[in-house]
Amino acid sequence: MKVFITLICLAVVYQSPDLSAEDLMGRVVKVADGDTLTIVVDGTDRRKIRLYGIDTPELDQPWGREAENALQEKAMDKNVLARVSGIDRYKRVIADIFIGKRNINHEMVVEGHAWAYRRYLKSKTLVKLEQVAKSRQEGLWAAPNPIPPWEWRKGAR
Predict the structure, then answer these.
(1) Active-site residue numbers?
(2) Exposed, middle or buried by CB within 10 Å (0-12, 13-18, 19+), for 140?
């Protein structure tokens, strides 16, 4: 069973991206937290990107720094493809981030660094990856009762 789940995760995580007119290619120059980074496109155009469909702990929340470090290790100074799905209310690009065939959004969830952000999801893929991370007690799921970031933010206000 574990081998089957691993194969499913790998198949989902390593989906091949198709380039479209709205996609961006650039180099990651900053990681703000576990679900936000900045890329430079065409050498000068900086774009702040919010990773689609995931929500990581806030930096002052348990596992927040670990999530930030995970994204930094995966993406900092790397060339990425951002498959754009929209713009958020803060004018950030919302996108899936690919390094080669690796979907970084998916990796962050299956490794236990992020929740599937159900409020904005169009498919159940990230929810399934979250369930795998939970069952393995990966990352933030090793804690007895991790608090979702959207609840943490409500408490902070």
Answers:
(1) 50, 58, 92
(2) buried
Contacts of 145 (CB under 8 A, 6+ apart): none
User: What digits encode the pLDDT tens for the residues 39-92?
Assistant: 999 999 999 999 999 999 999 999 999 999 999 999 999 999 999 999 999 999
How many CA atoms, within 13 angstroms, populate the side-chain half-sphere of residue 103?
Answer: 25
Q: For residue 2, is pLDDT > 70?
A: no
- Closest C-alpha to 103, from 74, 63, 73: 74
pTM listed for this prediction: 0.86
Residue 93, helix vs strand vs coil: strand
* Of 138, 146, 105, 122, nearest in space to 15 by CA: 105
What are the residues facing 102 on neighbouring strands?
99
Q: Among all chains, which residue has been given the structure tokens 């795998």?
A: 132
- The residue among 118, 134, 137, 136 whose CA lies nearest residue 126 is 118
Tokens encoding 54:
């995931």
Tokens linked to 7: 């194969």
